[in-house]
Amino acid sequence: MAANVPRQESFFYKSNWTAEVDSLMLSVITNSKNMAEWDGTVISIHVLEQVSTVIAAELGLTFSWRELYERFRFFEHRYRAFKVVLDTKCVF
Asked: With CB atoms 3.0 to 4.6 Å apart as the test, which of 21, 32, 68, 92 could cross-link to 37 if both were Cys?
């Protein structure tokens, strides 16, 4: 059965999205949070524009702040789903 499960890349990486883009995006967001540019609840357009600038400079790819916001939400949804799995108690 495991042979029928698609590789992770088929779920996460389409078009210009790559692991490198995701890593850079999350690094900039984490650094901005650590520098108290946002509180971790609602990400600002300013932070997303910073992400866009860094990705363009380092990788030569362009993303709008809206595209980056949608990607951020994508990660947030996956995180919450994974947290539900981790918090579920097994009954044997």
From this structure: 32
pLDDT of residue 38: 79
**How many angstroms separate the CA atoms of 75 and 7, rounded?**
17
Q: Tokens for 49? A: 């524009």
DSSP letter for 64, please: -
What's the burial of 9, exposed, middle or buried (CB within 10 Å: 0-12/13-18/19+)?
A: exposed
The pTM of the full predicted model, rounded to 2 decimals, is: 0.74
Residue ranges of domains in the chain? 17-87
Residues in the chain: 92
Q: How far is CA 91 from the centre of its chain?
A: 32
Among residues 25, 6, 9, 20, the alpha carbon closest in space to that of 69 is found at 25
